[in-house]
């Protein structure tokens, strides 16, 4: 996996009294831009029939066919999840009389593809199994926590380095760290999400950013 690590040097700091302590607060940033190793396919099924029972049976059968196709393409059963089912009646209001014409059932499926080399084949086999589905494909990471740890480590080192530089320039002697805060700025895309990383904050797709603020005690 290609990982590009970048640190943004933002020279912001404050010296102030906090709980009778003179402190120095510095901000460190760490960014990782890995290649995605997970594809999340979201399928939407919409079937209609005059009978509510029949449309449910047809939807259930189609889900089975799609699942069978995904398994044949090498997807594990645990990576195929059926979401919510919704049933809606269709009405005819002619002659000012409400009459049910039929029913529509919507169903959502989520399929996780952990080997991206299989993605095109998975899509092809699912498409053959059903023409009544809509596709949405998102990319993410199988282990986003490890990537966040990489970004956090870089952010901490960045903040620590700047604290040392500022203390030296201002002729200050740093003591212990009395406060640590962090902010993680992914856009999702992890194992449990289907939203790309990097939404907002000027970040690119599949980017994970961690901001760490370190507050040091200033020794007398």
Précis, in short:
The chain is an alpha+beta fold and 220 residues long.
Structure description:
This protein has 220 residues and is an alpha+beta fold. It has helices at residues 52-72, 119-129, 144-169; strands spanning 5-6, 13-18, 21-32, 38-49, 80-92, 99-113, 133-140, 173-184, 208-219. Strands 1, 2, 3, 8 and 9 form a five-stranded antiparallel beta sheet that branches. Strand 2 and strand 3 (21-32) form a beta hairpin. The longest helix is centred in the last third of the chain and has 26 residues, at 144-169. It is elongated and about 85 Å long. The protein starts with a strand and ends with a strand.
Helix-strand layout with pairing:
Blueprint: E1 5-6, E2 13-18, E3 21-32, E4 38-49, H1 52-72, E5 80-92, E6 99-113, H2 119-129, E7 133-140, H3 144-169, E8 173-184, E9 208-219
